[in-house]
Write a structure and sequence with these properties.
mainly beta, two-stranded antiparallel sheet, 3 helices, 380 residues, Porin
């Protein structure tokens, strides 16, 4: 008989779920299970060597991770409510904490404390018609890192978020303060959203973060993270070479030696639904204050309902990078998502993402990666 070992986080979560489910009738249980057969190809020609890789694997293409969430609201009287959310993700064969926050909701607005999404990620990533935040093609956004601290698809682990009471219908304002930890510096962010809830959505968002000593402001790892291939140079795999910038492409824009420098991110994005299709566009920039290091990303996309239950999403993006030394390179890419909805909760999908880097440390340097995936996703 196969034994399944759960860590303390998973066991504690399941115990809490059993207790709360019986004691709180209004508890909301949600989550996603997403698996696909994915083909991942990479190629690099940095001059020192010519390497490529082709991996077929199972992955969570549409979701960053499979996850399970427990959330709810309890009335405290006088139009005041207590809110909470606790979730775990399943990644690389292990259960790990994900979102976890508690708060108050009333006439004063909404206050939450804990592990939460950054306002810039919440506002800007929401318009992506392909939902593929974890794949190549959204230039500057790979599963294990975006190159943009404000657009990172990982929660801000120790943060306080405040949503102001809506000053007018369709207007939403959120501010957030994140505390320093061993992996991130002090940070803060905010967004303002205008929407009618149907046709149009417009947002402006920002995120500023102090860099830690030894931290790096870099371009995306272009989606090569996690490839387990035969070492191709110096004992490192192709994925590792790309991540650490040792393949001649040198994706680092700025390296913090002493720490304390500020990474300033800002983004504007919007969408409009014309009925037969939805158009989305956006621009995000990030720089290190007082240096030439800069990342500027532009995106343009469409979402098209082809026939009943079948939808097509497309997104093109290009990110221009400037190092602190003034040298430049770019990453461009596209993503396509075709879905067939068996129901509101279950979808069969085909996804494809492509990404290309032009301009490394020497003339002719080039890197490209691509993903093709066929999968099934169920949300609950």
């Amino acid at each position: 008989m196969r034994q399944i070992k759960l860590n303390q986080t998973a066991i504690g979560f399941l115990m809490a779920l059993g207790l709360v489910a019986t004691a709180h009738a209004e508890v909301k249980i949600s989550g996603a299970v997403d698996y696909s057969i994915e083909q991942f190809t990479t190629k690099t020609n940095p001059g020192m060597f010519d390497a490529s890789d082709n991996v077929v694997r199972m992955s969570n293409t549409l979701a960053n991770y499979n996850y399970f969430s427990l959330s709810g609201k309890e009335s405290l009287g006088s139009q005041l409510n207590a809110t909470y959310e606790f979730s775990i993700k399943y990644d690389n064969g292990a259960f790990m904490p994900y979102l976890a926050h508690v708060g108050l909701d009333g006439g004063f607005g909404k206050l939450k404390i804990g592990s939460q999404w950054r306002p810039l990620f919440t506002a800007v990533a929401a318009i992506d018609p392909t939902q593929l935040s974890a794949t190549p093609g959204f230039a500057g956004a790979g599963k294990s890192g975006t190159g943009l601290s404000g657009l990172a698809p990982e929660p801000n682990k120790a943060s306080i978020t405040y949503n102001l009471p809506s000053p007018t219908p369709g207007m939403f304002v959120q501010v957030q303060k994140g505390q320093a930890s061993d992996t991130q510096g002090d940070n803060y962010g905010a967004h303002i959203i205008f929407t009618d809830g149907k046709s149009f959505f417009v947002t402006y968002a920002l995120h500023n973060e102090k860099m830690l000593a030894g931290s790096i402001f870099a371009a995306s790892a272009t989606g090569t993270n996690g490839i387990d291939s035969t070492p191709v140079f110096g004992g490192l795999t192709l994925g590792l070479l790309t991540v650490v910038g040792q393949n001649g492409l040198n994706h680092r824009l700025y390296t913090s030696a002493a720490g304390g420098e500020t990474r300033q991110s800002s983004g504007v994005a919007g969408s409009y639904d014309f009925g037969s299709f939805k158009l989305v566009t956006g621009k995000v920039t990030e720089r290190v204050s007082g240096t030439d290091a800069l990342l500027a990303m532009h995106v343009l996309g469409l979402k098209i309902p082809l026939v009943e239950k079948i939808n097509l999403g497309y997104l093109y993006s290009k990110a221009e990078h400037t190092r602190s030394t003034g040298t430049e390179f770019s990453i461009s890419g596209s993503k396509v998502l075709l879905t067939y909805d068996f129901s509101k909760q279950t979808s069969l999908y085909y996804a494809q993402g492509k990404q290309k880097l032009d301009g490394g440390t020497a003339a002719g340097n080039e890197f490209s990666s691509a993903i093709s995936a066929l999968g099934l996703r169920h949300t609950f």
